[in-house]
Design a protein that fits this description.
UDP-N-acetylmuramoyl-L-alanine:D-glutamate ligase, nine-stranded mixed beta sheet, Mur_ligase_C_dom_sf, EC 6.3.2.10, cell division, about 35% helix, 3 domains, Protein-Tyrosine Phosphatase, Chain A, Udp-n-acetylmuramoylalanyl-d-glutamate--2,6- Diaminopimelate Ligase, Chain: A, domain 1, ligase, about 425 residues, peptidoglycan synthesis
Length: about 425
């Protein structure tokens, strides 16, 4: 089937879906395959549940006229999304980076929503499936699209840019994330910079943090719109980050609900992009000040007389270091519960040891390290304990002994350290 024909069928549907458990009346179902599942088997079920069309790539499952046989369902999803972007002809802002992608995306969205009808990536649906699904969730009511792009190996950002065809782009930072897939920090920089290459080739606008020398160097010959303390298009400065990040912009004081100096650049990017799209300053201030983080990202939670900084959505050496340095500035009794950092490959041993060495050197009263990688480290500090797994931690550490304290809970997604909350 030609992509234009497929697009016409898509326009006749209410939405796209890849999960029969969530089918709604009028959906277009894409029968994706995985290592442990074959969506083709559920095409008939999708139709029975109300899907208008289902796409399969195995002929034996194309049993009725509205089950459409294509060569490859995933490629059809991606090609349809790319065609749809051109059809809508709306500006797309793409962003990637090692840390802060989702928070920055949410901040950009709340700022631009003050003036425009926006559609943004839901949660972190930022891969080769999530990006097409986000594009296909946009319609003629959408005025600006905001696409988050994640990657753990080279050429992935390039591929996602080919699908989304962004008109603007922003890279939050270059840190020690997914070192195993990228082959080290140089690989991270090269991989993330694929977005720059795409935007520069197509003569598009790149938003940059003028205080980040890598961003400045990598966009030397590009069309840029910059923000920061240094010479830039928009001047934004950090006032302080205690207890929450407060910034100065255009003679305005903006007080956020985000902790940590590491969130300053995330907030500044959203302000600058709002400025570029001519959102008025009072609306930018309102958007930033009313945004509250969710999904285990720098959330502040009170449990009895304890204050918990829940930052358990993900972790890598760069974000872990930033979180610890910020946490040290907290007042009163401080306890950090830190979980393993994943996808570090051969660097796992040294990076976990580096975090242990840093954490034990800081003014933090108690350190609890959870996970196999942290368990292998050498710790010479009476204030530190290590546990091989969360279950061992749960059995051997009495959480009720923690009172009148501030806690930092941080680890990679696979550690699911938000489970600590259930122990109180």
């Amino acid at each position: 089937m030609k992509i234009k024909q497929l697009h016409n069928l898509y326009l006749d549907c209410n939405s796209v879906n890849t999960d029969t458990r969530k089918i709604k009346l009028g959906d277009m179902f894409f029968a994706l395959k995985g290592d442990n599942f074959n969506g083709n088997k559920y095409a008939e079920q999708a139709i029975e549940k109300g899907a208008k069309y289902a796409l399969v790539d195995e002929a034996k499952f194309a049993t009725q006229p509205n089950i459409i046989l294509v060569e490859n369902v995933l490629e059809s999803l991606q090609n349809l999304a790319s065609f749809h972007k051109v059809y809508l002809n709306i500006p797309i802002i793409a962003l990637t980076g090692s840390n802060g992608k989702t928070t920055t995306k949410e901040l950009i969205n709340v700022v631009l929503r003050q003036k425009f009808r926006t559609t943004a990536t839901i949660g972190n649906l930022n891969n080769h499936i999530g990006v097409p699904l986000t594009l296909l969730s946009m319609n003629t009511d959408t005025e600006i699209g905001i696409i988050e792009m994640g990657a753990n190996h080279l050429k992935e950002i390039e591929f996602l840019c080919d699908i989304a065809k962004p008109d603007y782009g922003y890279i939050t930072n270059f840190g020690k994330a997914h070192l195993e897939g990228f082959g080290g920090i140089e690989g991270v920089i090269k991989g993330k910079s694929e977005m720059y290459a795409h935007l520069m080739t197509n003569h598009k606008i790149i938003f940059i943090n003028a205080d980040d020398h890598i961003q400045v160097e990598k966009t030397n010959n590009a069309q840029t719109f910059s923000f920061g303390n240094n010479q830039s298009d928009v001047s934004i400065s950090l006032i302080n980050a205690q207890p929450y990040v407060k910034v100065s912009y255009n003679n305005l004081i903006i007080e956020s609900n985000l902790i940590g100096t590491y969130n300053f650049s995330n907030i500044a990017a959203a302000i600058a992009i709002g400025n570029y799209f001519k959102v008025n300053d009072p609306a930018i201030k309102t958007a930033i000040e009313t945004y509250t983080p969710t999904n285990n990202r720098s959330q502040i939670i009170n449990k009895g007389n304890n204050k918990i900084i829940l930052d358990a959505y993900n972790a890598n050496p760069t974000s872990m270091k930033a979180a610890l340095l910020n946490f040290e500035k907290q007042a009163g009794s401080k306890i950090a519960i830190l979980g393993d950092m994943f996808e570090l490959g051969n660097d796992a041993e040294v990076e976990h040891q580096n975090i242990v060495d840093l954490a034990t050197s800081l003014n933090i009263d108690q350190l609890l390290f959870v996970g196999e990688n942290f368990f292998k480290t050498s710790i010479n500090a009476s204030k530190a304990l290590k546990f091989k797994s969360f279950d061992v931690f749960k059995i051997n550490f009495d959480i009720s002994q923690i009172v009148n304290s501030t806690l930092l809970i941080k680890g990679s997604r696979g550690m699911a350290l938000e489970r600590v909350l259930d122990l109180f």
